[in-house]
Amino acid sequence: MIQPWSTGSILRAILASLLLSIALPATAQVFRCVDENGHAAFLQQPCETQRLRDSAAPETSDDGSDPDNTGFCPAPDLDSLKLALNSAFTHRDLNALSGLYHWPSVGRGGAGPILNWLGALLDRRLLGIDVRYRARHRITAYGITREVGNEEEDATGLRLILGSDPPGPADSAEVALVRYAGCWWISETGVPTP
Question: For residue 180, what is the domain's CATH number?
């Protein structure tokens, strides 16, 4: 005679099948791949099968620095960075301004104070931007004077000239420049100074 299933054996069988169905997908691998434009894709197959590059083995960038695999470069040159800063201030856009910030240098818990600092900058009107250089001096030879140290690779920071609404005396804020993966980024150097 065949004995009927007890309630306990049915529950054990259901529990075992649930555990197996949960455990099987956990063994699947996920590959982070990067296409030729630098956009990330997450696949269940190795990158080579889709003609994509594995993000664990990035290519070197033109300037010899580590590449940025996000495909996002806010400013390939200083003029582009100044235009992007001007646009962020014009639209009072904290997202755009924070997109120009070099976040890899920020440690745990550091984003809040930086976003507050960037927001405080946006409370002011941007009147101008001066580029700060590592070395700036004049050389005169054979009656020709040339400024040396004003090349883009010598840039170390920006002085943001800020105004208020209603118009009042102007003040400024200094931001550092970071060159990373062929792009220019801003970084915090201090608080706005009068």
Answer: 3.10.450
Cα–Cα distance between 73 and 62 in angstroms, integer? 13
Per-residue confidence band for 119, with pLDDT thresholds at 50, 70 and 90: very high
β-pair type (155-163, 144-148): unpaired
Residue 144 has pLDDT above 60, yes or no: yes
Strand order in the sheet with 183-188: 125-133, 155-163, 171-180, 183-188
- Domain count across the chain: 1
**pLDDT tens-digit profile of 61-71?**
444 544 444 45
C-alpha count within 13 angstroms, C-beta hemisphere, residue 98: 14
Q: Is the pTM of this model over 0.85?
A: no
User: Whole-angstrom Cα distance, residue 31 to residue 45?
Assistant: 7
Cα 73 from Cα 44, distance rounded (Å): 28
Q: Cα-atom radius of gyration of the chain, to the nearest Å?
A: 27
Domain that holds residue 153: 78-188
Beta strands in the chain (DSSP E): 31-34, 40-43, 53-54, 125-133, 137-141, 144-148, 155-163, 171-180, 183-188
pLDDT in tens, 173-193: 999 998 888 899 999 874 333
89's CB contacts (< 8 A; 6+ apart) are: 97, 121, 122, 125, 126
Q: What is the mean pLDDT of residues 133-145?
A: 72
In a domain, 177, yes or no: yes
